[in-house]
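**Reference record**
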Amino acid sequence: MESIDRELENRTILSLLDWGSNELAEGGIESPRLNCELLLSHVLHCKRIDLRMKYASPVMSAQAGEFQSLIARRLQREPLQYITGNTEFMGLNISVQPGVFIPRPETELLVEEAVAIAEASTIPPRNILEIGTGSGNIAIALATFLPKCHIDTVESSEQSIHIARQNILSHNLAQRITLMQGDFLSNEFRLDRKFDLLISNPPYVSASEFQEIEPEVKEHEPSGAVTDDQDGLTFYRRIAALSNSLLDPDRWLLVEIAYNQEQPVSEIFRAHGLKDIKTMRDYNDLARVVKARKDATR
């Protein structure tokens, strides 16, 4: 990396952005300018729009040096969200850290569909179960947009439970979200009540596909939140198998899926007696969410 001390004697916001963008582009980082703007706004404690309004403003040497160090970390393919310590989900600020799965924009469709189901129901869901808490982003979004609901959320990772608790407290939702640490795949997993809605964004990348994914994910994010180390369908089988004991009659379950899992997940749900199975597509027209309903007579 070329030193900014030598290249940029008069450090301004614009010159730093130009320098950083060039470094990231040469390093093969996608959307280099966006990455730079987010990193520099993080260093300067401002919004991205503020950068564009103050291009000619000078930047202190210490801040320029910090920015340079963050660019170096990004060039090592460390996820941007781990570097800044946060991300946005459904317009909500969510803290993240290494060891915790990073929320994706595509998962917003899962929450949007849950909200749509609740708003269209003559008896809206009051008790929701989420499988796989992660950073707490889904539970927090549900509690925010469905203010009459209580969310129970299950997570096996102690590190994720810790950061999720912090996020829940920062959004003042501790009274409406219950964190439970446990292994959903374990035969010992039991809950003594049923729910109005079951929702999950489970690990769905197959073992073979995991070997081919980008280094930001493969080398930095927790593999257990990304892949089941098998065919990518383990959690769907478990969710379907437990749906009868976890869902009240005539209630919905929603799961996020990979682009190529629409047919196998639908078949798994159908084999366990679920009905009204439908797939929602994301903004790239890729299968993203499968929903199914428990039979009213079961």
